[in-house]
Amino acid sequence: MTGALRRVLVVGASLAGLRAADRLRAGGFDGELTVVGAEPHLPYDRPPLSKRQLATDDPAESTTLRLPDGLGARWLTGVPAVGLDPDGRTVKLADGQELGWDGLVIATGAAARGWHGPVPAGVHTLRGRDDAVALRAGLRAGRRLVVVGAGFLGGEIAATARACGLEVTLVEAAEQPLARAVGAEAGGYLAELHRESGIVLRTGVTVTAFHGEPGLTGVTLSDGTELPADLAVLALGAVPHTGWLAGAGLAPDGGLDCDPYLRALRADGSVLPGVVAAGDVVRWPHPLAGGARVTLGHWSNAVEQAATAAHTLLHPDEPQPFTGVPSFWSDLHGVKLHSVGLPAFADRAEVLEHDLPGRRLEIAYHRAGRLVGALTVNRVGRLAGYRRELHEALLR
Length: 396
Ligand SMILES: Cc1cc2nc3c(=O)[nH]c(=O)nc-3n(C[C@H](O)[C@H](O)[C@H](O)COP(=O)(O)OP(=O)(O)OC[C@H]3O[C@@H](n4cnc5c(N)ncnc54)[C@H](O)[C@@H]3O)c2cc1C
What we know:
Blueprint: E1 7-11, H1 15-26, E2 32-37, H2 52-55, E3 73-77, E4 81-85, E5 90-93, E6 98-100, E7 103-106, E8 110-112, E9 123-125, H3 129-138, E10 144-148, H4 152-163, E11 167-172, H5 179-196, E12 200-203, E13 207-211, E14 218-221, E15 226-228, E16 231-234, E17 238-240, E18 256-257, E19 263-265, E20 271-277, E21 282-285, E22 293-294, H6 299-314, E23 327-332, E24 335-341, E25 348-355, E26 360-367, E27 370-377, H7 383-395
Parallel strand pairs: 1-2, 1-7, 2-3, 7-20, 9-16, 10-11, 10-16, 11-12, 18-21
Antiparallel strand pairs: 4-5, 5-6, 8-17, 13-14, 14-15, 19-20, 21-22, 23-24, 24-27, 25-26, 26-27
Helix pairs in contact: 1-6
This protein binds flavin-adenine dinucleotide.
């Protein structure tokens, strides 16, 4: 089964990379396994970084992911891969090392989108453990925080900071938070939750400038408003880490294109033998999106894709398509929000329950008359049915 596979290299030492390594071993791979990571840390979990880690003094190490017993992997952390030679089957690292492989798993995830120019001290992004430590140090009651972007991450950061007693302004370019991702109904619901908590939500405007030297003193909005600020967070979305693949003939931006078996594709669409990918870096055609190529920044997607990618590497002649149902959760203002499927690709949102005081919400999303997603607040029991229906749709 794994005869031709003696050396597997995993690039990206986070959730997808760790899970791929684990699934390779579970699938019988007993050869040399090396995991390369740009960060100095062993794999850790990111969801707590915008929640518990910002609100408490829990040590940063509390997010470390457990390494499975007997994994037998060599960990090269703190050294990014800088180049891939797909024909010579090597990966080059920033310290000059060149690592050979028979099988390669690309799990380099994504980075936080930054600002287009220099910013004063006190303007943060949040993607990694070190970012969370830096941001947490500035979250003191009474300080004025501007969060730029009211997506899930921006919303969580704003909610957590507000709960810590900061004066928070949440700035969103669209007319509603998350309108493009989950529609106006859910966006309006979230907007109310933000406002009820005392967050000042400014929609339909953008931040055009940050002021202060060396530290932040304020921001300018596109409508001319000047907001004093001690601290700001850019929550402008994620950019897949594909720069190191640019010389290898793989899509250099917007995600690494893969087929449904999570085999990496060259720019001409042909399969790159022996190379698979998993997690936030992957872009693949999604049936629920009508075949449009998507990238997903979902924890469960990274875990489930890692299993499919490992299987594809171990069984190149019997690959199985990835059929995971997209699934995401968010914790903010004391509510549990869940989404399954791809609400962003719906043409109709059916609101089944909308109860702001009772903190409940249930919306089903349809496209051309078929279910493509659902979103609930504090209605976790409703998800299994949606998930089942979506899974059946993915198997069709
Ligand atoms: C603050 C935060 C909160 C989140 N909350 C939720 C949530 O509530 N619910 C949910 O479903 N999802 C959440 N997510 C998303 C979830 O954490 C991600 O989907 C998941 O981490 C993806 O795992 P990954 O391994 O694909 O990528 P990542 O976790 O991004 O890991 C990629 C790793 O590869 C490394 N790397 C990059 N380039 C190179 C290179 N050239 N060489 C070597 N290594 C490299 C990176 O340093 C990184 O360690 C959250 C994410 C963040 C950042």
